[in-house]
Amino acid sequence: MGTGTTNWGRSMELGRNRVLLVAIVLVFIAIYAWLHLRAAFTLPLPWPDEPDFLWPAIALARDGSLLAPEMNRELHMMWMPPGFMVFTAGWIWLFGFSLELVRALSAALIVTFFCAIVLMLRRHQAPLASTLLCGLFLLDAHFVAAGNVGRMEALLLAVLGLGLWRLSRDDVITGMCVLSITPIIHPNGLYFVLASLLFVVISGLAAQRWRDLRRSELQGSSRISPLEWLSLLVVLACWLSYATYIAFHFDEFTFQIGAQLQRKLERSNDLRTLRLSDYALAVSLTTAFVYGLVQRERGRLILLLSCVAAGSWTCRFIGGEMWYQIFYQVTLLFTSLCLLELGSRVLSRALPNVPKLLLTAGLLLVLLAGLFGTRTLPFPPGLPDRLSFYYMRTAPSGARVDPWEMDQVAAKLRRFGDCRERVVIRVDPPADALFLYERLSDTNLLFSTPPWLLVRAGNKDSRYRVPRWDIFVVHVDRYVFPFARQMRKMALKAAGIEPGSDEKLLIRNNADSAWYLNERERQTANKCGSEQDSIRNVLEDRGRS
Hints:
Blueprint: H1 2-39, H2 50-63, H3 83-95, H4 99-120, H5 127-138, H6 141-146, H7 153-168, H8 172-179, H9 182-185, H10 189-202, H11 205-219, H12 226-248, H13 250-267, H14 276-295, H15 300-314, H16 325-350, H17 356-373, E1 388-389, E2 392-393, H18 403-414, E3 424-428, H19 432-440, E4 446-448, H20 452-457, E5 471-477, H21 485-495, E6 505-510, E7 513-519, H22 521-528, H23 535-539
Helix pairs in contact: 1-4, 1-5, 2-3, 4-5, 4-7, 5-16, 7-8, 7-10, 8-12, 10-15, 14-15, 14-16, 15-16, 16-17, 18-19
């Protein structure tokens, strides 16, 4: 009777803990969703390289090909693997295109990463404390920004989280299969594959799985589960598809990847950029790694977290991209989880008479004091006003993108969509073309968007035959990121527009936002049939806007 009562009590306690854990997860997801909505199009601003990744996705959903005529009519854009484009194309095919929906997808992927890590931490020494720690990292500006932009980082983290979750369950085949997809999403995924492979080898999981397969073979039972077979088939299909894609466009691949690697190496950091916090991080990771290596079975989770944290830390030194900073935050998250697990175990042995809950709470408070004190994490009462990513901060909803403005500009451009030949429109900033395409996708207009990587590099390579524009639209407002100011001046010059002049003003919404438009009149007259369709007729009613 006593034993049964004890087991029943433990089951009740486990049930309460699970309910509390689910409640914590749901609260943090709700707060994250609120921050995502508040960030809108200000954290970050519509980013110049979002079109680089979304035009191929749109083309695949629309035409069944990754060749985006908006960027080049002959050349595939292959300086990044196509995993994100293919995945996003499926989303666009199901729900239609809007930049807001694509950014919502990124937010859902970041939440997927968070949930996968929480599932992995069910074997943590202090699962509730570690979930709280994960939730606070989720509210950090880097995770909010990564979940609010049409880039690859959110998808990469979601796949990483799912792969680590399976590895934490000792499912070697499925976990490594999932992780092996990450390089097709972003080259940084290679670091996570190597780090996870190191864990599998040194933890003995690979040898253990091999022994299980041999034993099941001798007994005549099924050697590989259906989930493992499915994972192997999906990975094989993904890599064969990517290899085939490269084979058909090998010259483009080698040319663009070579240019990308050269650029990344030129911008990479070296060991001379290490700060005092980096040395403390290195000591913490080394300690966690050694502990996990010595403890074997009991230290397997710490070993996994420390290996992946080291792989994620590598991204900080390669490329120098502002978006890669999120991988450094992942390193800090995993290192903090290692310290929480390690410290909880050590303190429980050193102070056996002190309640474990009290020790864990004290250790968590010390960790949080350090994270808040060094501004690694934002202090929750300051959200969302103090949430900033580089120079960008959350602003009132709609501060950067006014739907009325976009509707008015789209209405004036729509009449060119019925011309007998396709009219090409160049838009600056490049991401604003996505808002206009959302409203004009049912017309015959073609938005010409030079790849942002080449615009920044000033590359004049003849292989990049961006469609020649008939109409050039320039949006000037106060929400301009500093390093793009010079690009805006270059765009105005290329369009033949004098800044501040009303001669080619299309719409002025307020003192902070103005839309200018210039055309090659002979080209549009030839394409549209007569001078009556010239842009003069579009501009003559600008005063009524």
